[in-house]
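Raw record, unedited: RepB family plasmid replication initiator protein
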Amino acid sequence: MAVEDKKSYQKSTALFKNAVLNIAISEINEFTELEAWYTQTKIGNKITGFTLHWSTDKQVAGATDKQISLLREIHDEVERRMFDYLALENSKNRDMARTYIIRIKDIDRQVNETLTSKQANEFIQEEKELYGYLQDLLENDGQERDTSVYYNWLEED
């Protein structure tokens, strides 16, 4: 950690724990799938060392508010335009639109507090793709594509 030659850390274990060790442990826990912690080794009242522990049993990161919001926005937009999709002239295209809408609704039912970040990303990609297909069906049917919804979520990865 490049702090072994710092006198301030050698004199104050509390400073070392707060400025270095606790920050490192917190970053490991936040940015990896490991769960890390430490125990102190003491002789009398003096801390003489630290033992680092880790486990791979940490739960996978949950979906972020941004991911959930994005999934809901796509779903809500499809729901808003649903009658346009279901009123397509071509019956084959109408059936395809129905299939896409049902899948988006299925995804929406799976959006809850147990959704992982990885699952959310996969759902976002799938919903964006399905939304694009729906828009293509509208365009092929001679309807104008709704460009009012083309903002960041169609470009985000």
